[in-house]
Amino acid sequence: MPKKNQSTQNKKYQEYVEKTSPKPTYMKNCTWAFFVGGLICTFGQFVHNQIESRMNLTHLEATNITTLIMVFLGALLTGLGLYDLIGKRAGAGSIVPITGFANSIVSPAMEFKREGFIFGVAARMFSLAGPVLVYGITSSVIVGLIYYVIGR
Amino acid sequence: MESYVNAFIIGGLICVIGQLLMDGTKLTPSHVLVLFVTSGVILTALGLYEPLVKFGGSGATIPLPGFGYALAKGAFKGVKESGLIGAFTGGVQATSGGITAAIAFGYLMAIIFSPKTKP
Question: Can you tell me where the transmembrane regions are (chain B) (predicted)?
Fold first, then answer.
């Protein structure tokens, strides 16, 4: 039964691969993601607290301005080439915060500048941000419609 | 001081979930981001994200699910204030600052800077 033989061999090989391939990345990656992501959010909280206490704004306004500042910083650090240095280690810790959203806009836009300002910069800006906006906005409309029908 | 600790923990944990999804499944960062925004909208609609924002502050609003949270909350507010049309205008209205900042600053930075050669 050569076929069965082969499948057991495959299985053994799979087990061998699983045993020998490096494992510790889970722990290490998650630790990095936790600390970098946590630090970005802590900095955001710092900005938020400063704005709220100094500029005498409502909580919601302060949240909006914080988002604005974080987006600006994310875009600036990406332009300077610093954000990708953080991202190399931090993984999701730098991708998931809103600064990562800014990074996902600036990075491809810079990269494809030589293809022109319309099809290069402007079109490529949304290669990742586009899907996020499409799914985010569409689902918010659906949720709003459901709320209109059953919620009020 | 407490607000910083809470933001650190909640923000860190949300990022760890993203990291586990990227490492443990075949999802790419793009998939994770789309998933996170959509989950943010759905969790907010179910009333499950609001407590997280209350507790974690920026730790819950800065990560991408927080973007979904703002979208859904805006859509609800829109419906409350102006009915059916609010479902279409509310979400983007609430997030217009962030979206516009991302487009304007993103474009500006992409024009000013050039990609660094990768070491």
Answer: 6-25, 32-49, 55-72, 84-113
Which among A138, A129, A82, A32 has a CA at the least distance from the CA of B20?
A32
B1 CB neighbours in chain A (<8 A) are: none
Report if residue B34 sits inside a domain.
yes
ipTM for the predicted complex comes to 0.92
Q: How far away is chain B from the Cα of A9, in angstroms, using its nearest Cα? A: 25
Its domain, for residue B10, covers 2-112
At A20-33, the pLDDT tens digits run 766 668 888 899 99
Q: How far is A123 from chain B (nearest CA, A)?
A: 11
**Tens of pLDDT, residues B65-106:** 999 999 999 999 999 999 999 999 999 999 999 999 999 999
Task: Give the separation between CA B46 and CA B48, rounded to whole angstroms.
Answer: 5
Structure tokens at B72: 């859904």
pLDDT at residue A18 greater than cutoff 80: no
Residue B117 belongs to some domain of the structure: no
Residue A79 phi/psi, 5-degree rounding, is -60, -40
User: What's the domain count of chain B?
Assistant: 1
